[in-house]
Structure formats: C-alpha cells, structure tokens
Design brief:
Layout lengths: L3 H15 L5 H11 L7 H11 L5 H13 L3 E4 L4 E4 L10 E5 L5 E4 L2 H13 L9 E5 L2 H9 L1
Parallel strand pairs: 3-5
Antiparallel strand pairs: 1-2, 3-4
Length: 150
Amino acid sequence: MPDIQTLTRQAERQCQQRGVRFTPIRRRVLELIADSSGGLKAYDLLDRLAVEHGAARPPTVYRALDFLIEQGLVHRIESLNAYVACPCPEHHHGFQLLICRHCGRVEELHLDDVSAQLGARAAALGFAVDRQTIELLGACDACRTSAADG
C-alpha cells in the first residue's frame, strides 16, 4: 500500500487532470482513510474530523466520500459499511477486496479477467452492470500464523 503522501499526490494529479476540485476536506478524508489499516466507517471519520474541524457534519463526510468514490480514490466495503483507500487509483478496471475477519486488514486485487468474465456473462443475460463489488473474507497470513502459534 502506498504511503499517505503518495496517495494524496496521486489524487491531486488525477483531480487536476479531470478538472475536479480536490478540496481540503476531501484531502483530509482521504488521508484519514489511508491512515487506517482496514476499513473506516463514516461516523468514525466524522469523529476524527470533528476533533480538527468542529463544524464537520455527516453530510460533509458523505459528500466527500461520494466524491472520492466517484474519482476511484476510495472503495466502499459493502459487507462492513466502511471505506478503504484505493492504492492504485489510475487503474480503471474492476477490483476485488481481501478482508481479514480478524484484524480488518484489506488488500486490493485487480483480476481484470474475473471482472471481464462477470461483465460479459451479465451482458449475455441482458443485465447492465453499474458496479461490481467482490469481497473475499478470510484470514490474512499474519493472523493465521499468530493463531497457529497461540
């Protein structure tokens, strides 16, 4: 996973290229999410923002999250109702998330052939896919190792 500064620089460049505003609040929301090893829930974000910006309210956070998702900078973890920073926002294809059910660590995969196969099969069935969310829950190597050692 790239460091926070690298992610924010990538986000700045991407937003500039697309002609959209990367406001200070959007930047801070991305930084807070990127600083979390697993997914971060919207109200956890709000609590952290409220410490820095007393005027932060739920609509502020949700608007920032919507923007970051639209720009491909953040992904929503559907099963956890949480958000994770995208380590490679320049990647314009589908993604899959590996989520450790013990420590909450999230890793992103880009198996484009899986996304393409699902999209093709859906199209063959007359279905138009708006968004793919593939989440694989399990145990990361560190948690499996510590469980075996304990």
